[in-house]
Amino acid sequence: MSPAALRPADLKRGDAFELVHGLRDASVQLTVTSPPYNIGKVYEKRVRLSSYLADFEDFARVLFKKTSPAGSVCWQVGNYVERGEIYPLDIYFYGIFKDAGFKLRNRIIWHYGHGLHANHRFSGRYETLLWFTKGSDYVFNLDNVRVPAKYPGKLHFRGARRGAPSGDPRGKNPTDFWADLAARDWESMVWDVPNVKANHVEKTIHPCQFPVELAERCVLALSQPRNLVLDPFLGAGSTAVAAALHHRRFVGFDMDSNYVRLARRRLRSLEDGTLRLRPLGRPVYQPTSGERVARVPEEWTVPRSSSGSPPILRMLRAAKGARMVAGGAT
User: Fold this and answer.
1) Is 34 in the same domain as 162?
2) How much is the pTM?
3) Do 95 and 148 fall into the same domain?
4) Whole-angstrom Cα distance, residue 242 to residue 237?
């Protein structure tokens, strides 16, 4: 039987701030979600930042009651922007969840390679995921997320074990800096997971969809089979799919009936084997130098005026000169 059929999901249309009260106390092992950022997307009404944050104060307290003693919350957020000034939402949410009783275990950076290009500041290419636990005795499945050692042949160089392997044959404990989803996927706190844009295999109608593999990491590390996973801001249902893939029960809420129907369709597609997913562990695509997309367009290398070379040509020449100096050229 497929994961989706084995662990049915309960998807509800309605206001998460109200529906969360209906959950049984201490029943949720893991919450994985990305709330609206209050930036005027089609699924939200933009309000003053203080009003937006105030709504989450009571929500966090209720969520604390609904979370199991060994449970966790993974709260993925970006920035609120007003008149060109950014407000990092994770900074504000840390205080809200701390006041509610949660304990922060990691502040994880989710890095992605594509997005809007800014003209008056550096282009944003990351968001944050705050991992909170309810208590000090929490689920953390280290063996589910171990990675191969970078230097498996490394030996103890002194003491009674001198000359013996210094690592663990099961793999190493991941640090809190996650590099990418290739062989070294748990080695760093920067998760280099592609965001869901036009050419992503998981793309749906949702304008701010996050990839299933982002939720999968949280589900595998912080819950057990048959545990209940919650996404109070369901969206395209990425967390629901991740929970079903790994035999977890799921409950999710969304105000928009279109998104609830979308999430249900994705779960049905998962059940019948037709849902397209980016495989967990696939390396981020890097074009080769021979591909057209990786080559500098000819018009960028031709001076546009008598004032000199265009910036890209000067950069290329500077890089070539630096390599010659580094290589000992005179």
Assistant:
1) yes
2) 0.75
3) yes
4) 9
Dump pLDDT digits (tens) for 82-114: 888 999 999 999 999 999 999 999 999 887 766
pLDDT greater at residue 28 or residue 213: 28
Q: Please give the tally of structural domains in the chain.
A: 2
Q: What contacts 124, CB < 8 A, 6 or more positions away? A: 78, 79, 86, 115, 116, 118
Planar angle of CA 69, 71, 34, nearest 5 degrees: 140
Query: For residue 295, is pLDDT > 80?
Result: no
| Residue 277 covered by a domain | no
Which domain range does residue 299 map to?
Answer: 294-326
- Adjacent-strand bridge partners of 85: 82
Determine contact, residues 106/131, Cβ cutoff 8 Å.
yes
Question: Does one domain contain both 161 and 252?
Answer: yes
Residues ≥6 apart with Cβ < 8 Å to 187: 147, 150, 174, 175, 177, 178, 179
Q: What is the mean pLDDT of residues 21-47?
A: 84
Alpha-carbon dihedral sign for residues 60, 262, 111, 114: negative
Same domain, 252 and 316: no
Taking only the tens place, the pLDDT of each residue in 35-62 is 986 755 555 677 889 999 999 999 999 9
- Both 199 and 314 in one domain: the answer is no
The answer, yes or no, to whether residue 142 has pLDDT greater than 80, is: yes
Dump the DSSP string for 90-152.
Answer: HHHHHHHHHHHT-EEEEEEEEE-S--PPPSSSPPP-EEEEEEEESSSS----HHHH-B--SST
What is the overall mean pLDDT for the chain?
79
Per-residue pLDDT for 190 more than 90? no
How many CB atoms are located within 10 Å of the residue 154 CB? 11
For residue 111, is it within any domain? Answer: yes
Report the run of H or E that residue 221 belongs to, with start and end: helix 212-222
